Structure prediction request, 184 residues.
Amino acid sequence: MAPTENSIHSILSANDADHCRYRRLLSHAFSDRALREQEPLLQHYINFLFNFTTFDIVGDLALGSSIGNLEKARYDGWISVIFAQSKSASLAVTFRFFSLDGVLKTMLPNSAIEKRRRHAETANAKILRRLEKEEGKDEQRNDFMTYVRRYNDEKGMTVLEIEATFRALVVAGSETTATALSGI
Prediction:
């Protein structure tokens, strides 16, 4: 590798003595202690990668197409809404456990209610698109919906139940898997 325009050499183009000097100085940044200290920064990016990947995979398995986080190298707008409304969703589950649903409704700001509505609307549109695909065309896909459709009979699930379940499945499946992978 050639030196830079002002004749300064990097570690890749330096002579042996300078190369050793550069390496000696850089070695501290790659020591066990330094890497342990850098772990929160690394974990931050690993969490993003796992979240991107697991939402794309679970989205593909549950909805028939990837959400596209990896391709876009950013969270899809829908996923951003999911994360934004996750705090109010946690509160809702807690209040529901104690039979205090009515109290929570009076406490939630309109923005939280709107985020929940947008999440449900976006998810339901994706779920319905997947449900409407011709039965024969998805036989080779063998995703979650293939099996739900194949074995859904009069004792099975209604469309509204499928919507509610698959909304939960995408969020819970993605987040749980990403969290588990991040802890490995």
About this structure: Helices lie at 16-27, 32-63, 69-72, 77-97, 101-107, 110-132, 144-151, 159-182. The mean pLDDT is 85. The radius of gyration is 24 Å.
